[in-house]
From TrEMBL:
Cofactor(s) the protein needs: FMN
Origin species: Flavisolibacter tropicus
SUPFAM superfamilies per the UniProt record, alphabetical: Flavoproteins
Annotated protein name in UniProt: Flavodoxin-like domain-containing protein
All copies of domain Flavodoxin-like, residue ranges: 6-180
Length: 199
């Protein structure tokens, strides 16, 4: 079994999204994966890493109901190779952070999914159902009831970064398991197909 290569490319202004990106990267670490964590400010030195990835996870804060300006700038730089479709058939996923429960984070995830679609990538949804006890939703896994991708609620401080809510931490871990599962199943299926066709 070959290792799955998963890259997280993210933008963060005040540290909240960076905190989430690091936690997701840590949850993705395994004997079967190679994980790269890239801030958009360092993307010029890491294009080859992204091009060589099996899965690319996009992350940014939600500002005024959409992706942050820093992440949008990154998206636009990919226009230089978009027409070559270098990311075609790679897997993509997304996460976003805002200081409110809603905050129009869904619109941000939809923007990230559309961006992936323009690069002909396959989108990995969150794949984590909310939990209910006595017909009431719990404050645990997928407490923000997102399905398109990972939503995280942070504090609203520009001076500190508080701990992520335990329910969001659990959702990060479950999302990481899904990302690994999809990446490894796909990669090894392709390897088996290549071996069969070369016989």
């Amino acid at each position: 079994m070959q290792k799955g290569i998963i890259s997280i490319i993210y933008h963060s202004n005040h540290g909240h999204t960076e905190q989430a990106a690091h936690m997701l990267a840590a949850a993705l670490e395994s004997p079967h994966t190679v994980v790269h964590l890239i801030h958009v400010s360092n993307v010029k030195q890491n294009w080859s890493t992204l091009h060589g990835s099996d899965t690319i996870v996009f992350g940014c804060p939600t500002y005024f109901g959409n992706v942050s300006a820093g992440f949008k700038a990154f998206m636009e730089t990919t226009g230089s190779f978009w027409y070559k479709q270098l990311w075609k058939n790679k897997w993509a996923a997304g996460f976003t952070v805002s200081s409110t429960i809603g905050g129009d984070k869904l619109n941000t995830l939809q923007s990230l999914a559309l961006f992936a679609a323009q690069h002909s990538m396959h989108w990995i949804s969150l794949g984590v159902l909310p939990r209910y006890i006595n017909d009431e939703q719990t404050d645990g896994q997928n407490r923000l009831a997102s399905y398109m991708g990972l939503m995280i609620q942070s504090d609203n401080s520009q001076q500190r970064v508080d701990a992520i809510h335990p329910g969001d931490l659990l959702t990060i871990e479950l999302f990481a398991q899904r990302l690994m599962e999809v990446t490894l199943q796909s990669k090894n299926s392709l390897l088996q197909l290549d071996s069969a066709t070369s016989l």
